Amino acid sequence: MVKHVLYSYLFSRLLMYLCSAMGIIKLNDIKVYAYHGCLIEEGQIGSEYRVDLLVRANLAEAAITDKLADTVDYVHLNKIVKEEMAIRSKLLETVCRRILDRAFAEIESLTEATVEVSKINPPIGGDVASVSVALSKSR
User: Fold this and answer.
1) Backbone angles phi and psi of 112, in degrees to 5
2) Beta-carbon neighbour count of residue 36 at 10 Å?
3) Catalytic residue among 3, 26, 119, 137
4) What pLDDT was estimated at residue 85?
5) What was the pLDDT predicted at 12?
6) Are 90 and 38 in contact, with CB atoms under 8 Å apart?
7) Which CATH number fits domain 21-138: 3.20.20.140, 3.30.1130.10, 3.50.50.60, 3.40.50.1820?
8) Burial of 113 (0-12, 13-18, 19+ CB in 10 A)
9) Whole-angstrom Cα distance, residue 63 to residue 32?
10) Residue 119 known to be catalytic
11) What is d(CA 17, CA 9) in angstroms, rounded to the nearest whole number?
């Protein structure tokens, strides 16, 4: 009887942990060369970009099992970013939306994500280090 009560207690504690261990995975400063922009020259010459991606998901099971299959694979996230950055767009907002839409379509465990795309040394007629656009999405 005592064993049964102890197991029930431990099981209930484990369930509480699994349900509440939301975590964050961040990919910081992904460097990409791409051809985004409204100017014809931007499509021909291209420029450097920096991408930051933050995703939220329940990481409790991965914390217990230590298995890649139980977490959000940041290699997969990096692949999504690089492939979507390779598709030319006029606006950074469009690139951000594509990255978020694809991440949510391919990774079911995501609950929330924010992506920020920064164009380094944008051609805007001034001494500006970068210009950034950030978008968020949740389910």
Assistant:
1) -160, 150
2) 21
3) 119
4) 98
5) 62
6) yes
7) 3.30.1130.10
8) buried
9) 31
10) yes
11) 12
Return the amino acid letter for 56.
Answer: R
pLDDT of residue 105: 98
The residue ranges of the chain whose pLDDT is under 70 are: 1-4, 12-20
Angle formed by the axes of helices 92-106 and 74-85, nearest 10°: 140
8-state DSSP, 5? H
Query: What do you get for the CA distance between the two ends of the chain, in Å?
Result: 43
Contact indicator for 60, 21 with CB cutoff of 8 Å: yes
> DSSP 3-state assignment of 14?
helix
Nearest-angstrom CA–CA distance, 4 and 44: 70
Q: What is the pLDDT of residue 109?
A: 94
**Cβ neighbours of 9 (radius 10 Å):** 10
Query: Which residue spans within 10-77 are E strands per DSSP?
Result: 22-34, 47-58
Closest CA to 96 of 62, 65, 52: 52
Radius of gyration of the chain from its Cα atoms, rounded to whole angstroms = 20
Q: Which two tokens stand for residue 98?
A: 């594509």
